[in-house]
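REVIEWER CHECKLIST
Item 1: Sequence provided? yes
Item 2: Single chain? yes
Item 3: Sequence as submitted:
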Amino acid sequence: MYIANPDRYSDTPETQPYRKVGRSGLTLPAISLGLWQNFGDNTAFDLQRSIVLRAFDRGVTHFDLANNYGPPPGSAEASFGKMLSSDLKPYRDELIISTKAGYNMWPGPYGEGGSRKYVLASLDQSLSRLGLDYVDIFYSHRFDPETPLEETIGALKTAVESGRALYAGISSYSASRTLEALKIARGIGLDLLIHQPSYSLLNRWIERPDSSGLSLLEVCAQEELGVIGFSPLAQGLLTKKYLTGEIPQDSRAAQDGSFSKNFVSAQNVTALQNLNDIAMRRGQSLAQMAISWALRDEVVSSVVLGARTIAQLNENLDSAQNLAFTASELAEIDNSCVEGGLNLWAPRSSDL
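Item 4: Structure as written out by the authors:
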């Protein structure tokens, strides 16, 4: 029988600091555990369980899911639902569980997008897989140009008003679409509180202004919207694994799926090597510095990270012990960064 670490909220190097989410009363651990990769049927359940429980023992209370996480789609939610039932049920009120709807889930015209039909059906399916009556955060996973935004935001309002979600958020919306979504939400009495974009040293799109004249970071700060950055390690590129430019056989790049071999380009490898030198002087691994850097701005409430092993999880969580940067370090990091071509989600969301 699992019994959680009684010191999980103590102020020790093992545990996580917490940050406010925008203008809400919600707080999140600086580092959250994402179940996008490594929590489907291709990973042993006992390993998944050990990673999740170790994270909770170290003060990670936020577990980030989506309907399509797996493989196959839905299996990450089903796995986490088993853990909730067998281990975490006594701690439900300590957990922030989030899920999303937007990408393809089932055949036919109602299996993806932003329609009311799809969004609410997907949420009901997610709750069933998780074995829950509600999730804490429910996101529109991407902007859908085929559906009026009023309909998508209205579906989020229904999710909250029906008690199926406590908070509503959006993911990968551009600055201008975020402003549009906020205006619609205010008009119907919905508080949109959270934005989850991709963000890393080699993927800094949220810092650049779009047609609104503002960057997404500026919009979120101005509107007091909490940012939860995902993929701060660029799917593992920002680790020691690729420093030589070689692609290990057991790496995600070797699988050539969502992580393309093209990401391990000469330009990106040079950036990794320069950034690694800075990290070493800070007494951090490259991965740890990348995580700390993504948290340097207080508008970023949390970053979402995956983990393949307990050792990897522990290394990532240790990043929270050193979140401060000097001005000279930040300037050197800026000079070392390149645009790595890593925003996979732009053509279907943030560019629209």
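Item 5: Key structural point noted by reviewer: The first strand starts at residue 18 and ends at 20.
Item 6: Recommendation: ____
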